[in-house]
Design goal:
By secondary structure, the protein is of the alpha/beta class. The chain has a single domain, classed as TIM Barrel, CATH 3.20.20.70.
Length: about 375
């Protein structure tokens, strides 16, 4: 067993173990991938202030996110097709999150269904939905989430039109994977992955197939998806979906100050500063660069979180210091899931948590709730100084 000390270790194992189609699905952005890359690299422009002679005993990372107690200021983000990265992937990730004391968010585009995950976990998880046109399907989907005791709804608001991801188109991404000479040749080299997939019955989109009108099998899914997303999405429609749920709501995909203010006015419990991991508008600002202006604009009207680009505990620390209540981990835990299954997700959380704790201490802080901008050295124009 290799020694895992950083997320990059898991990424290397992940790449060797999982078919190219699904590795590329996770490890790619739209168009030129500028935003995808800068989500990660822009963290390097922020420096930490080392402090000495400070009592570092009795440290804690515990806080709250949207009113829920969390062991660390992080949650697992909704990621589609987790069950193609590792058999029953959503169940494995949810279990790992539960053990770590942080929330798990199930994607509508998951392989395991809401009911599958609820059956294999003991604590409530969050459920993510897209802004779809079909009210009947949305209503039934939300009711299934309520029946499964999901404690919050995450509404993704930046996906009414899909950004072009070149690798997915070239690979013919699908679940289950399309059998072409190239995909067969690649999957033949991923024997452990293939044996796991043969051992599970969960290989399709469990929340959609058999539930959405006209989608009785995987072959009819693509045509449904093409028509399902609401191109006419506006703030009134977002409010309708919030009211349809009637409970705690988190809006994911806010990257502009004006949109953040509107989301706060709408009554969201939290907003997530996110550019969808660089998978939508390429050339947009990284999430970390937009975080502080958004935090300043909304004040204490709504909790602000961040996703996109988190690969270490220091990234989490920098986001919290710039005003985020917490972050969502995406690719970091996907690497672990693909590399080592449930144990890999646990390892990813452990690695990030340990680095967060150590770095916080070396910055002279013992409680994550006391972390502020004073521990940072940030370039004057970090959040943009454009004409």
């Amino acid at each position: 067993m290799p020694v895992i000390t950083e997320i990059a270790d898991l990424k290397r194992l992940y790449r060797r173990r999982v078919p190219k189609m699904f590795y590329d699905y996770a490890e790619s952005g739209s168009w030129s991938e500028q935003t995808f890359r800068e989500n990660v690299s822009d963290f390097n422009d922020i420096y930490l202030r080392q402090r000495i002679a400070v009592d570092m005993t009795g440290r804690t990372l515990a806080t709250t996110m949207a009113g829920e107690e969390v062991a660390m200021p992080m949650a697992l983000a909704p990621v589609g097709l987790l069950g193609m990265q590792s058999a029953d992937g959503e169940i494995k990730a949810a279990r790992a999150a539960e053990k770590a004391g942080i929330p798990f968010t199930l994607s509508t585009m998951s392989i395991c269904s809401i009911e599958d995950v609820a059956e294999h976990t003991t604590k409530p998880f969050w459920f993510q939905v897209y802004t779809l046109k079909d009210d009947d399907f949305m209503s039934r989907l939300m009711q299934r989430a309520k029946d499964a005791k999901c404690s919050a709804l995450v509404i993704t608001v930046d996906l009414q039109i899909l950004g072009q991801r070149h690798k997915d188109l070239k690979n013919g991404l699908s679940a289950p994977p399309k059998l072409t000479p190239a995909s067969i040749a690649n999957m033949a080299t991923k024997v452990p992955w293939g044996l796991e997939m043969l051992g599970t019955k969960r290989r399709f989109f469990g929340n959609i197939v058999g539930h959405a009108k006209g989608v009785s099998d995987p072959s009819s899914l693509s045509s449904w998806t093409a028509e399902a997303f609401d191109h006419a999405l506006d703030w009134d429609r977002i409010k309708e979906l919030m009211d349809m749920w009637g409970g705690k709501v988190i809006l994911k995909g806010i990257l502009d100050v004006e949109d953040a203010v509107k989301a706060a006015e709408l009554g969201a419990d939290a907003i997530i500063v996110s550019n969808h991991g660089g998978r939508q508008l390429d050339g947009a600002m990284s999430s970390i660069r937009m975080l502080e202006p958004i935090v300043k604009a909304v004040g204490d009207k709504v909790e602000v979180w961040l996703d996109s680009g988190i690969r270490s505990g220091q990234d989490v620390l920098k986001a919290v210091a710039l005003g985020a209540r917490g972050v969502m981990l995406g690719r970091s835990y996907v690497y672990g899931l693909g590399a080592m299954g449930e144990a890999g997700v646990s390892k990813a959380i452990e690695v990030i948590g340990k680095e967060l704790d150590t770095s916080m201490a070396l910055c002279g802080k013992r409680d994550i709730r006391d972390v502020s901008r004073e521990i940072l050295q940030v370039p004057a124009d970090f959040s943009g100084n454009f004409a």
